Amino acid sequence: MRRTATLLTALLVAVTALPAVAGPREEAREHYEHATSEYALGNYETAALEYEKAFALKTDAALLYNAAQAHRQGGNKKRALVLYQNYLHVFGDRATNREEVQKLILNLKKAIAEDEQMANAPPVAQQPLSTPEAKPEPKPEPTVTAPAVAITAPPPPERKPLIKRAWFWGVIGGAAAIVATSVALGVVYGGHDVGPSSNFGIVRGN
Q1: Range of the domain at 39
Q2: For the chain, what is the domain count?
Q3: pTM score, whole prediction
Q4: CATH number for the domain that contains residue 99
Q5: For residues 19 and 2, what is the distance between their CA atoms, to the nearest angstrom?
Q6: b/e code 30-52 from CB counts within 10 Å (16+ = b)
Q7: Among 84, 110, 114, which residue's Cα sits nearest to residue 99?
């Protein structure tokens, strides 16, 4: 008996020492919490995948709706449209936000159609850039040259005849005075011999 009781005690201790294995519900909650954190940080694609993993483990309408919301915020319009439509298909009878989801579906369909139309539209030929018109160069203004003026030297002063010049008559008058003086002296001293004194001999030529 003691041995049996000891074995049972050891078995219970071993069982309680084993780590608790998380079930689908706990695992779904872990994905849900991770998804909520990523959604708050703006990592919408990661959040959408985590919501999908949580919904795969636990069929909950809120998890499917959250996955659709995260895909729409992340720009994955087609995936969001599928999840919104499935949300109404599976949980539409008891969904309190049915009208809101229907509007989201219409908006997504319209946006997807516009994207496809833009993708299939032919490329628009790019118009060549117009070059600015070249401005004509200004024409040079004609230069006005003044007529050449011939510069001539003034004519030489007219030479007056000697008889009309004042200095000529001054010379003539002076010469006449000298002549008159010489004549007067000749008259005064004309009758006297002015030769050497007789006391000295006179040398005469042959």
Answers
A1: 22-120
A2: 1
A3: 0.52
A4: 1.25.40.10
A5: 28
A6: ebbebbbebbeeebbebbbbbbb
A7: 84
